[in-house]
Write a structure and sequence with these properties.
The structure is a homodimer. By secondary structure, chain A is mainly α. Chain A has a 3-stranded antiparallel beta sheet. In chain A, strand 2 and strand 3 form a beta hairpin. In chain A, helix 1 packs across helix 4, helix 2 packs across helix 3 and helix 6 runs antiparallel to helix 8. Chains A and B meet through helix 1, helix 4, helix 5, helix 6 and helix 8 of A and helix 1, helix 4, helix 5, helix 6 and helix 8 of B. Chain B binds a DNA duplex through helix 2 and helix 3.
DNA sequence: TTCACATATGCAACTATTTGCATATAAGAG
DNA sequence: CTCTTATATGCAAATAGTTGCATATGTGAA
C-alpha cells in the first residue's frame, strides 16, 4: 500500500491534520495519487495505532478541533524502507478504453460526446499543470532547488495529459470520418 | 465496476471459459485493464449467479473440464446500459511518482536504478504495442474494419508509453546532472 | 434568510483488488 | 528425472477504495 507512504512523505516535511493532508494531497500529489477524505482519516487512524505517527489536539474557537499528526521515528524508518525497495509499475484500469473497445455497440454520437467530456477534463488538468509549471519556472534559480523533484512529477502530469489529448484527437478524427 | 463490463464486452463477441477470458484479457485489454485469474474466476461466478451469463460444462480428456460461459439477454442489456452512461475519468495512483516526490530522502543511485528498471518494462511494452500496430497496418484494407476501434485503444497504449519514456528521459537527465 | 462552500472529523457497508494457497494433467527442455 | 510452462479451476484472508451518511460552525453570496 502506498497511501500510507504518500502520507508519510507529506508528514516528513511538515506536520498536519487530516484536513491539511487532504488539501496537500490535492495540491501536490493530486495528479498522480488520489485519495478521498474518508480514506485519509481512516488511514491516519490506523497509522496512529501502528505508531507510525503521533497526534496532538489543537483547540480552535469557531471551528472544530484539529488533530495534528506528526512523524515518529518508526514512521520515518517505515518510509525510508519503502523508498529503498522497488515498487510495481503503475497499473492502468481505464473504463473509457473498455468502452471504446466495445464502441460498435453504441451510437457514435454518444461516444463522441463522452470523449468530448473527458477531453474537457483533461484540458483543464493540463492548464492547471502548465500554470504550476510557470510558477516554478518564474522562481529565481536558488529558490528552484527544493522543488526540483516535485517539478519532475509535474512534468509527468504535463506529458501524460498532452499524450492523452493527442490520442483523443486521433479518436475524434476517426469518429468524424466514420459518420460521413 | 468495470471488470464486469470488460468481461461482458469479451463475451459479446465470443463465448469462452475463465481461462480463455484470462488470455483474451492479456492479449486485447491488457494494456488498459488488468485482472488476475482469481478476480476473473470469482467475477464470473458472481455474474453467473446474477444471470448476466450462463454456463455449459465441456469435458476434455487429459485436461481439466472447461466451464464455458456465454452472454444472456440480461447480460447484453447490462452492457448496453453501462455503455450508454458516462464513466469516470481514469484515476491514477502511481507509486513511482510518490517515490520521486520524496526522492530527497533516498540515494540518487537507487532512484536511478529503479527508474531504469521501470523504463525497461515500459520499453518492452511499447515494442509489443508497435508490433501489434504493424500487424494491423499490414492487413488488407477490408480486413481492417473490424479492428478499427481496438486499434484506437492500441494507439492509446503507444502514445501513453512514448510519453512515459520521454518523461523518464527528462528524469534521467536530471539525475545525471545532479551527481556531477 | 436560505443556500452554498470551507473548515473539521468520522462510521458503516459495500465493492474491488491482492496475496497466498490448493489441485491436477500434459508437454517439452535440460 | 526433474523443472518449467501451459491448461484449467477455485477458496480464503487481507488490503484498498467507494459511496452514503452524519455532525457542527463560520463566512459570504443571492
Amino acid at each position: 500500500m502506498s497511501l500510507k507512504h504518500a502520507i508519510l512523505t507529506l508528514l516528513e516535511t511538515e506536520e498536519g491534520s487530516g484536513y491539511d493532508l487532504l488539501k496537500r494531497f490535492k495540491a501536490r500529489l493530486g495528479f498522480f495519487w488520489n485519495a478521498s477524505h474518508q480514506q485519509i482519516y481512516s488511514q491516519l487512524k490506523t497509522m496512529h495505532q501502528d505508531g507510525l505517527i503521533d497526534c496532538t489536539l489543537e483547540k480552535q474557537q469557531g471551528k472544530p478541533d484539529r488533530k495534528v499528526y506528526h512523524m515518529t521515528q518508526t514512521g520515518h524508518d517505515t518510509l525510508v524502507e519503502w523508498l529503498e525497495n522497488p515498487v510495481k509499475v503503475d497499473k492502468i484500469n481505464d473504463a473509457l478504453l473498455v468502452k471504446l473497445y466495445a464502441g460498435h455497440l453504441i451510437d457514435k454520437d454518444k461516444l463522441r460526446q463522452e470523449l468530448n467530456e473527458h477531453t474537457a477534463i483533461h484540458q483543464r488538468m493540463l492548464e492547471t499543470f502548465l500554470n504550476l509549471e510557470q510558477e516554478y519556472l518564474n522562481l529565481p534559480a536558488h529558490e528552484k532547488k527544493p522543488f526540483e523533484l516535485p517539478y519532475l512529477t509535474l512534468r509527468r502530469g504535463i506529458l501524460g495529459e498532452k499524450a492523452w489529448l493527442a490520442w483523443a484527437e486521433e479518436v475524434a478524427q476517426y469518429l468524424e470520418n466514420s459518420i460521413h
